[in-house]
Specification:
Layout lengths: L13 E2 L4 E5 L9 E6 L2 H6 L2 E5 L26 H6 L5 E3 L4 E7 L3 E5 L4 E6 L2 H4 L2 H5 L8 E5 L11 H10 L1
């Protein structure tokens, strides 16, 4: 295996089968759980260097997907007044049908859906201008979004780093 074929898996994070990592950033006394999300370094090896990152356009999700000419519905999600109070400071909402991130890689274009319903609290816009952060530091400067999860999410349901390595071995 050459140096270019090597990748790392961060310990202390949880993973999805779509190669996203979750890192808990809120404390035990916080009212809501917040997570920083990025993509595993494995994506760089499997699909080639990441050339372009597109984060969700919270104000108009219809223009989000990379290389998509499909027409999109004009329907908008409407939050109730209670949701607005609970998610004060949120940039917007994502459901499991919404795109979390678009990645244009050397060998393939990936549009990754949000794995859970959540409020987007912050986005790392720097990676849209500098996608090399994801290639160079996937678990640090290469993060995508910070989310606040909705009820029903269990961090322990995600793959541990050991389970994720086992999953990758089966691919």
């Amino acid at each position: 295996m050459s140096d270019e074929d090597e990748f790392s898996i961060a310990v202390g994070r949880r993973y999805t089968q779509e190669h996203l990592w979750f890192h808990l950033i809120s404390g035990p006394n916080d009212d809501h759980e917040e997570y920083k999300i990025g993509v595993s370094d494995f994506v760089r090896i499997e699909f080639g260097k990441i050339l372009k990152v597109t984060l969700p356009n919270i104000t108009d999700a219809s223009e989000f997907m990379i290389s998509s000419d499909d027409e999109h519905s004009d329907e908008e999600d409407i939050m109730s007044k209670d949701d607005e109070k609970e998610d004060a400071g949120a940039l917007g909402e994502l459901s499991t049908d919404d795109n979390l991130v678009g990645l244009q890689c050397e060998f393939e274009t990936l549009n990754i859906l949000a794995p859970i319903a959540c409020s987007v609290m912050s986005m790392n816009g720097e990676i849209e201008n500098n996608p090399h952060y994801v290639n160079r530091d996937a678990y640090g400067d290469g993060w995508f979004v910070i989310i606040r999860v909705h009820d029903g999410f269990d961090f322990d349901d995600l793959l541990s780093s050991e389970d994720y390595v086992d999953y990758l071995a089966e691919l």
